[in-house]
Amino acid sequence: MPARQRIAPDTPGNTNRALHGILLLTFAFALSQFYRSCLAVMAPELQHDFGLSAAGFGALSSSFFMAFAAAQIPVGIAFDRYGVGRPTALLLAIGAVSALLFILAPSGSVAMLAQAGLGLACAPVFMGLLHFASEQLSERDYTRVVSKSNATGMIGALCATAPLGWASQLLGWRVAMSFAALCMAGACYGVWRYVRDEGHAEARHAPWSAMLLQSARLLGLAPLWTLIPMCVAMAAGTAFRNAWSGPYLASVYGLQAGPRGVALTLLSLAGFATAFVLPVLVRRGSLKATIGGWSCFSLLGAVLLTVWPDHGVVSGVGLMALLSTIGMLHPLVMAQGRGLIPPAARGRGLGLLNTFVFLGSALASWAFGMIASFGDAARWPVSRTYAAIFLSAGVLVAAAVVPYLFSPPAQKS
Q1: Would you call 412 exposed, middle or buried from its count of C-beta atoms within 10 A (0-12, 13-18, 19+)?
Q2: Contact 31/184 with Cβ under 8 angstroms?
Q3: Which runs of consecutive H residues, i.e. helices, occur in 83-138?
Q4: What is the C-alpha to C-alpha distance for residues 258 and 264, in angstroms, rounded to an integer?
Q5: For 406, which DSSP code?
Q6: Burial of 312 (0-12, 13-18, 19+ CB in 10 A)
Q7: 282 exposed, middle or buried (CB, 10 Å; 0-12, 13-18, 19+)?
Q8: Cβ atoms within 10 A of the Cβ of 296, count?
Q9: How far apart are CA 329 and CA 332, in angstroms?
Q10: How crowded is residue 123: how many other Cβ atoms within 10 Å of its Cβ?
């Protein structure tokens, strides 16, 4: 692969720049995790301030993920053409403006616009980390580094739980979110300064229309369709960790912002621990067995929550944490999919898979809001409404496990 290395690995200055780039993309990924997760702890306050119904809150949450999903293929093309640094820095600049707009938003519609801008800003970060690392690292180091970066990124999700919950309760959510806006601006500068790479020559000279067509043709790779349902099914867990865990704890158990943040910290800690456990399981078994087995393990959380949606706050948080860990399979599914995609099209291929990951998150969050609104209109008990939501999450996971059993095993390096 003559165009594989963008930065000479044997040059100390360039090696340091590459390491700085990976670290800064990991920081930006942690910030992305924060913005993905922050709405959950603030949900009742946002609904009050913006006058949002359950369906309206679902739309607010889904606007982030819909923009995130829509950007994946164009971002993948940009990575193949121009490298990771310039497109990511540009979108992070949009994110810095959108973060300020969200803080100042006078209404739900403006907040949705800001969330869409934040979704665009966060869209390239994890895929950029995957793509940049794949160009700089060996196959063996790649899985190890992106798994550690994925775990480190969970620090952002942790900051969106108890720290944000207590800060929102003491200072108000607008003040609490101001620091994140400053971090977004800092991430933009850091990526622009240190993530310096170039695209593939073959992709750089191809017209955009041809690359879009080639991206669509990747859907013709039959093995990818054994992974795509799993990409969508990860939303069964991430939609709760990122948005609906807060309304669930507030509606069913009456928790305020501070205690909700503490409870949601446990969800993020579960994800943090899972991110370290999964690579160990991969080394002791296989990538495919780990993904399939952990999916079934997470499915158990959805089943038990469907049966006992209001059994107690401790069991509710614990089982929701179990369900949410399916989202931590993201880098493993990407690593498996990476081996199915030609090197010159990896940016587009990873973007395609990521499109389904975040399209699933957008649609799941919206669908959960519609179920909640239907339950309100039908005067269901709150526990019955959430039982229906957990049931739909379980069905989504179960429907993904079956085709995944036929997925090709990951290529060994």
Answers
A1: exposed
A2: yes
A3: 85-104, 108-122, 125-136
A4: 10
A5: T
A6: exposed
A7: buried
A8: 12
A9: 5
A10: 30
User: Would the pTM count as exceeding 0.90?
Assistant: no
Note whether 403 and 229 are within 8 A (CB): yes
Residue 336 CB burial class (10 angstroms; 0-12, 13-18, ≥19): buried
CA angle 337, 341, 347 (to 5 degrees): 90
H-helix or E-strand containing 74? helix 54-82
Question: Domains, the chain, ranges and CATH?
Answer: 12-194+208-404 (1.20.1250.20)
The residue to which tokens 């999964």 are assigned: 278
Q: Are 149 and 22 in contact (CB under 8 A)?
A: yes
Task: Give the pLDDT confidence score for residue 205 in this predicted structure.
Answer: 67
Alpha carbon distance 71, 144 (integer Å): 27
- Residue type at 121 in one-letter notation: A
Report yes or no: 108 and 53 within 8 Å, Cβ to Cβ: no
The helix-helix angle for 12-50 and 257-284 (nearest 10°) equals 140
Tokens of 175: 């003040």
| CA-to-CA dists, residue 190 to 24, 34, 95, 268, 376, angstroms | 6, 18, 14, 26, 46
Q: Average model confidence (pLDDT) for the chain?
A: 85
Distance of CA 198 to the CA centre of its chain: 25
The tokens describing 394, both together, are: 């379980």
Count of beta carbons in the 10 Å neighbourhood of residue 350: 24
Which single residue is written with the structure tokens 């359950």? 54
CB 145 within 8 A of CB 25: no
Going from the C-alpha of 215 to that of each of 61, 212, 354, 362, the distances in angstroms are 27, 5, 13, 21
Residue 397 pLDDT > 70: yes
pLDDT of residue 412: 52
